[in-house]
Write a structure and sequence with these properties.
The protein is an alpha/beta fold. The chain is about 40% helix and about 15% strand. The chain has one domain: Rossmann fold, CATH 3.40.50. A 3-stranded parallel beta sheet has the order 2-1-3, sandwiched between helices. The chain is globular.
Length: about 120
């Protein structure tokens, strides 16, 4: 059975709920097609600030670089609005993008015929 290592960053707000459902889908796909996921849960964003004082801890960075994929939920929320600009949840998102050489989020999109 093929195994894949995924770092899971549930994030803040609705992030944990969405990521939990995504993991259910991944597990079902694995059952159906004969592969397995090993999940490594780490912190990013506001929850990371609460636990470590920084939005993108080194432990998270190291785990992401060591895994084959990263599953990322939403980050941020009004709870952290009073944080200085260099320590806001969004700073963690920008830092992980730079660290992993990424530039954009992929989201479903619908293109309308007139466009």
């Amino acid at each position: 059975m093929k195994e894949y290592n995924i770092t899971v960053l549930k994030g803040d707000g609705i992030g944990p709920e969405i990521v939990d459902e995504a993991i259910k889908v991944l597990n079902k796909a694995g059952e159906k097609f004969g592969f397995k996921f090993n999940y490594n849960y780490q912190l990013l964003g506001g929850c990371a600030i609460d636990a470590t004082g920084e939005p993108y801890p080194k432990e998270t960075a190291d785990a992401c670089k060591a895994s084959q994929a990263v599953l990322l939920g939403a980050v941020g929320g009004p709870k952290w609005d009073s944080q200085p600009g260099n320590n806001r949840p969004e700073k963690g998102l920008l830092a992980i993008r730079e660290d992993l050489g990424l530039f954009a989020n992929l989201r479903p999109a619908k293109i309308f015929a007139p466009l």
